[in-house]
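User: Second chain of the day. Same drill as before.
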Amino acid sequence: MSDHGAIRIGIGGPVGSGKTRLVETLVPQLAAAGLSVAVITNDLVTDEDAQRVRRSGVIDPERVLAVETGACPHTAIREDPSANLAAADRLNRRFTDLDVILIESGGDNLAATFTSDLVDYWIFVIDTAAGDDIPRKKGIGLLQADLLVVNKIDLAALVGADLDMMRRDCALARPVKPTVFTDLRSGTGLTELTARLLDGAMLTASPR
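Assistant: Same format as last time:
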């Protein structure tokens, strides 16, 4: 718990990298750690991601709110996070036991970053199918995120992505901050990812 209520964790990254899948995967992991969780999704002019999370069965649908940014997703997580802050306030008032709010950004480019006014900790998600040169390009999101997730490692061989090179380039770009390689569909890397998140965001687990 922070001064503003539940710990707010941002999840950003390009379109199709696996952000919504990450939300759906993390919710039961955090719940199993004894944490009360809610979700805010961001999309341009739709609540499709929120509807997907509600249908997933991993969380009470009442604990999922949608923000329609109406413009570049950067705006709602960085320049003017007021809509997300208002949604987080609504969730804190509605669920007084809340420990964590996951805030998923609308899909955007490698420069997407979260303002510290909105989140306490944030994750940036990329995927191997988008190109193994992404870590070498050192986008701002990749460089500054508290935790980097390189997702869809199961597709690397199919698209000719060099995972060893990606590991080396991530280590060079992020010599101190952690990177986790995952296949969220199968659960590969999930244990490490959850442990990194709990430790990095200083979330106290009380396993159920």
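The two ends are 19 Å apart (CA to CA).

User: Great, on to the next one.
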